[in-house]
Amino acid sequence: MTANANLVPTLILLGSFLIPVTFVAWSFERWRDEHLTAELIVKAFVVGGLLGVLAAAVLETYLLEPSPWLFLGVGLIEEAAKLGALIFVTRHLARRHGRDGFVLGAAVGFGFAAFESAGYAFNALLTVKGLSLTALVETELLRSVLAPFGHGLWTAILGGVLFREARAGRFHFNRVVLLMYLWVSVLHALWDYTHSIALALTFLLTGTPWQYRLLSMGYPPSPTSEQVHVFTVLSVGFLALVALLGIATLWATWRRTRPEKAHSASLP
């Protein structure tokens, strides 16, 4: 409406941070303990999220190469980066209550998601035909809808387990923490593999001989209109399945974490 390019950064920041900030504020108000301050939550969101993004970007650049296991490597690296950022921003906490780990983990995870979404939105804006506001808005809307079921959820789970297993105010990296780290990394990888799995199943279920010939020669065939619909349904279905697995894990982990006296709320 305004043709004012100065508003593009505002659009990117608003689209990337609105949903993550809302969820962090909600979890802070509902489940925080008295020693969790707004300052610490903001620090976890901004500092933790930023450190996680930067650490993951550097490690992925030097450690990962294109391969069928690429997304598993991404999951392992990004979940480790967020875990390290969470440990860094909470290193001075005198008390580490189990359910506080969920709130702080969510703050770090949503911070990571917000900064990452800003990068994706910026890349979507730049096209060979110039700036594309349509692609920018579509990217922001899609990632905003998916944000509650991704980084924030996975790091909340891992943070809750990490804090629950703490002993005498110190983090204890036992088998429970390691197994949960591996599980959320697998969830992360499955989330990233969704597109590839849905595409492979689409051609497996509805492929034609000429499409198989092109695939055998290494050329991606053009999908039919029917295949586009099948691919969309499969993509959404797999994303929903991974999201449900994450929510179920959060629920089970939350229920097994003993509430402190200051906590009177429970998950609805």
Topology:
Blueprint: H1 8-31, H2 38-63, H3 70-89, H4 98-125, E1 126-127, E2 130-131, H5 133-146, H6 151-164, H7 175-206, H8 209-216, H9 225-256
Q: Could you list the spans in which at least 5 consecutive residues all have pLDDT below 50?
A: 262-268
List the total number of helices: 9
Classify the beta-strand content into a percent band: under 5%
Widest sheet, order of strands: 1-2
- Separation of the first and last Cα atoms: 42 Å
Radius of gyration: 20 Å
Largest sheet: 2 strands, antiparallel
Strand count: 2
How would you explain this protein's 3D organization?
- By secondary structure, the chain is mainly α.
- Helix content is 74%, strand content 1%.
- The chain has a two-stranded antiparallel ribbon.
- A hairpin with a 2-residue loop joins strand 1 (126-127) and strand 2 (130-131).
- Helix 1 runs antiparallel to helix 4 (98-125) and helix 3 packs across helix 4.
- It is globular, with a radius of gyration of 20 Å.
- It starts with 7 loop residues before the first helix and ends in a 12-residue tail after the last helix.
